[in-house]
């Protein structure tokens, strides 16, 4: 982000930030809320045994609202998150940071809001936020699994797509951990450099 601030004019920065905010961070929660409202009268939500799916759908809606609010908070406190250069972050050695910003941005934002040296209170808030989001991610996985397995009515296709995206965010954590273990066992990855930068100035949120 710092390199982009040094090398790019304000107009380009504003366009990049606006594009990422709308089409990367806000599109997912907005699309899910609109799709859920549009399909609320569908027989799927009114069939026998649909109570489970309704509860799961509302749980995922809460998850998306939390993501939207976290993005709004980050926009006020440290808007530089919109300028993160993922390839440069990966090359710097912060592979976990780069991976999280793409595959689970809602958790990345919670982590980013902690700052470079998080306090105990900030860490507790982050753990509570991420723990809640993970539980709600699990609700999307359960809703998708129940529909595909025939335990309940199958969700409409647009809702299933949203559930799949959210479930992938849940599965990203064990998948990344497994990939690190395999890469280190094969000698492709050193013992360090898989997570967050420890000394690079880019690690400090520029909004603080």
Automatic annotation (TrEMBL):
<keyword id="KW-0812">Transmembrane</keyword>
<feature type="transmembrane region" description="Helical">
    <location>
        <begin position="157"/>
        <end position="182"/>
    </location>
</feature>
<feature type="transmembrane region" description="Helical">
    <location>
        <begin position="21"/>
        <end position="40"/>
    </location>
</feature>
<keyword id="KW-1133">Transmembrane helix</keyword>
<keyword id="KW-0472">Membrane</keyword>
<feature type="transmembrane region" description="Helical">
    <location>
        <begin position="52"/>
        <end position="76"/>
    </location>
</feature>
<feature type="transmembrane region" description="Helical">
    <location>
        <begin position="129"/>
        <end position="151"/>
    </location>
</feature>
<protein>
    <submittedName>
        <fullName>SLC4A10 protein</fullName>
    </submittedName>
</protein>
């Amino acid at each position: 982000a710092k390199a982009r601030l040094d090398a790019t004019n304000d107009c380009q920065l504003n366009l990049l930030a606006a594009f990422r905010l709308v089409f990367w961070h806000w599109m997912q929660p907005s699309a899910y809320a609109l799709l859920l409202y549009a399909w609320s009268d569908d027989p799927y939500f009114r069939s026998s045994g649909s109570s489970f799916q309704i509860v799961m759908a509302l749980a995922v809606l809460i998850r998306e609202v939390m993501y939207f609010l976290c993005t709004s908070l980050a926009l006020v406190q440290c808007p530089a998150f919109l300028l993160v250069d993922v390839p440069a972050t990966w090359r710097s050695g912060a592979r976990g940071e780069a991976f999280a910003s793409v595959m689970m941005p809602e958790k990345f934002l919670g982590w980013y809001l902690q700052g470079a040296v998080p306090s105990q209170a900030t860490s507790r808030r982050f753990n509570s936020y991420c723990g809640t989001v993970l539980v709600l991610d699990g609700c999307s996985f359960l809703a998708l699994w129940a529909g595909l397995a025939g335990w309940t009515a199958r969700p409409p296709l647009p809702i299933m797509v949203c559930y799949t995206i959210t479930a992938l965010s849940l599965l990203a954590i064990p998948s990344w951990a497994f990939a690190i273990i395999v890469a280190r066992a094969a000698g492709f990855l050193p013992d360090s450099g898989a997570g967050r930068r420890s000394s690079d100035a880019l690690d400090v949120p520029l909004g603080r």
